[in-house]
Amino acid sequence: MRIFKSVWFFGLSAIFLVCLLSRAPAQDVSGYTVISAVELKRMQDSGTGILVIDTLPDSRYKQEHIPRAKHFEFPNENMDPWDKSKTGGKTKDDFAAALGEDKDKPIVFYCSDEK
After folding, report:
1. Extended strands (E) in 13-106
2. In which domain, by residue range, is 70 found?
3. Residues 9 and 52 reside in one and the same domain
4. Per residue of the chain (115 residues), what is the pLDDT tens digit?
């Protein structure tokens, strides 16, 4: 019975944590701030100058993407050194050009992990 209570408590705690996180505002994760789709929409609607980068394969971008998002394909795994075959043939210079001159503009990257 004692084991059951412990498992139940930890299971309930995990569910509670997931519920809190799903309603949570932006979170800082490993140096990046994670925002929800609702927060992104709010930023876009407010006229905040943000840059949205869709990192999905070109075929997925053409099928559907967030309005005003720029496309720059990136692989899910770490890419060191840079490999143009994993970025739709684009170089680091192409990436710098896509980011633009304004270094203070917030940038939102989005992707999908299909694994």
Report:
1. 27-29, 32-34, 51-54, 70-71
2. 35-110
3. no
4. 444 333 333 333 333 333 333 344 566 667 788 889 899 999 999 988 899 999 999 999 999 999 999 999 988 788 889 999 999 999 999 999 999 999 888 999 998 765 4
